[in-house]
Specification:
Order of helices and strands: HHHEEEHHHHHHEEEEHHHEEHH
Shape: globular
Number of helices: 14
């Protein structure tokens, strides 16, 4: 039985001691309720309401040119975004849509454990993100199969790769022996952890080898001088590993541009979304917060702190480059900083002195200012990497806000 006020308690028949204990605990219970409601903002509800208008029976379709088709990847990502609303606060209609959508996603699992047909690593990891938040009795077998699939596509000895290979420990779009990248990697490691892979599994140790090779940190990255890098001029030059602690998309490759060194070598520029991907994935792989590799990434973040753009792009690439992958950046920023246990980012104020920034407050304010009247978010400054799709940007925004409570 639930009593809504101390007056209701006084009108009930309870022994005096029990009455006093219940009355004393009631403000705490009510405060917890109020806090839970406050944690879910009107902006988040508007975002969810927008997504709900884009589904049919829990299924989300993707429109590419004149084609429109139901997609398990977008459906999974959108359902995960809807699941960012605490279960106790969802309406019956919202939960019914989540249930229908995930039931459909389960039907799209392939024999090898993957989901979908295109970019299967991304699609499978999105499916794991959503399914891992659902009823375990319905998802246990599917998650185990998905886990085996992700493990099977990691570049390692079993797939013919050795530590001397650039790809070692990494994960690509979904095939064995495929070129790896840090974006696919962070999704894969996230999925392995969500699916219950033990933290001491060797897959995480292998992953760290690849992560180090995406970091501009000379003490960790062993690829200096061993790769040829193509810069803006298209001509190859030896790789020069930087030392700012940030990360790039792929060993020797950065869409943020390159730095030409006096000796003719070339350094790929560190940039925001991949540095947060690195920090998140190091943490998921068990690398501690006081580790020099993690601390170097944190230092880069402090030196480049912003929620106005995806930092790190070479000015020569033009203003538009600062906004490529912006909403993906927001999601990774929130996931990484919460994973590593940071409530504040240490940066420099206008006076040059150290300044502690409440990143959650900054991010919430920025996303609130960018939300459109219909509740959606859209990258209006750069549509690269599908951020011209309001469904995708809205999913990223909600998955970022989930960590801003």
């Amino acid at each position: 039985m639930w009593f809504s006020s101390p007056m209701a308690l006084r009108s009930a028949s309870f022994p005096p001691l029990l009455l006093s204990l219940l009355a004393a605990s009631l403000p705490t219970a009510l405060n917890a309720q109020d806090a839970a409601k406050a944690a879910w903002s009107p902006a988040q509800q508007k975002g969810c309401d927008f997504l709900l208008t884009k589904q049919k029976d829990g299924i989300f379709s993707v429109k590419m040119g004149s084609r429109e088709f139901p997609d398990p990847g977008f459906t999974s990502l959108a359902i995960a975004a809807l699941q960012s609303k605490p279960a106790a606060q969802r309406t019956e209609a919202e939960q019914a849509i989540i249930d229908k959508g995930l039931t459909w996603v389960l039907k799209n699992q392939n024999e090898d454990g993957s989901f979908g047909r295109n970019v299967p690593n991304y699609t499978t990891c999105a499916a794991v993100m959503a399914l891992s938040r659902w009823d375990p009795s319905k998802t246990k077998e599917a998650l185990a199969k998905a886990q085996r699939y992700v493990l099977a596509i990691q570049n390692c000895e079993k797939t013919g790769s050795s530590k001397s290979d650039v790809e070692y420990g990494g994960v690509g779009y979904g095939s064995k022996g495929e070129r790896s990248d840090l974006s696919n990697m962070q999704f894969a490691i996230d999925a392995l952890r969500r699916s219950g892979l033990p933290a001491d599994n060797e897959a995480f140790t292998r992953a760290v080898v690849f992560l180090q090779r995406t970091q501009n940190l000379k003490s960790a990255n062993d690829l200096g001088g061993k790769l040829q890098v193509k810069g803006d001029d298209g001509k190859p030059a030896p790789l020069a590993v930087g030392d700012d602690g940030g990360a790039v998309y792929y060993p020797g490759e950065s869409p943020a541009g390159y730095i030409d060194q006096p000796d003719g070598s070339r350094t790929p520029r560190s940039y925001g979304s991949m540095t947060y991907a690195l920090l998140k994935t190091y943490t998921l792989c068990g690398v501690k917060a006081d580790d020099s590799r993690v601390q170097a990434a944190v230092k880069w973040i402090g030196a480049n702190w912003t929620v106005a753009e995806n930092p790190g792009a070479d000015a020569k690439l033009g203003d538009k480059a600062k906004y490529q992958g912006l909403f993906y950046y927001y999601m990774l920023l929130a996931q990484a900083l919460e994973a590593v246990g940071m409530d504040h980012v240490t940066t420099k104020g206008e006076d040059g002195k150290a300044k502690e920034v409440d990143w959650r407050a900054d991010l919430k304010q920025q996303l609130a200012s960018m939300q459109r009247d219909d509740g959606s978010w859209l990258n209006e400054k750069n549509t690269r990497w599908y951020e011209g799709l309001d469904i995708l940007c809205t999913c990223y925004a909600l998955l970022a806000l989930e960590h801003c409570r």
